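Readers outside the structure-tokenisation community will struggle with the description of the input data as it stands. For illustration, here is how one protein appears when written out as sequence plus structure tokens:
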Amino acid sequence: MYWAILLVSAVLEAVWATALSNGNYLIFITAATLSMAGLSAGMKRIPVGTAYAVWVGTGAALTVAWAMITGEEPVSVWKIVFLTGIIACVIGLKFLKPAGRSVEVPLLVGGSGAVPELKPGAVGGTGAGGVEASS
């Protein structure tokens, strides 16, 4: 469901971009507001980077495709090839499996996000001031 919302918001991105270029500000404001709301809803379950890439890529590809269909922009084989590449990459992002975290992040002091907690002498067997302790 979140992917469907994200794709609808990408279509609305193409609508507001086209409306803006045509000076139709009421459609622009409505479509932009709904598009941003859909992007926000999609980001609740889809990672931010992926959601944004899908939203921008799909919206941009649809905007260019619509401009070519309506004759506002010239059609070329290379444009079609590259737009197809954008859509293929968006589809690829949909089918990637989420990966777990590969790097263990240390717990931070008091959860403040400041500095990892270290105990005295914990690094390299040194004492205070980094001087090697004799046994």
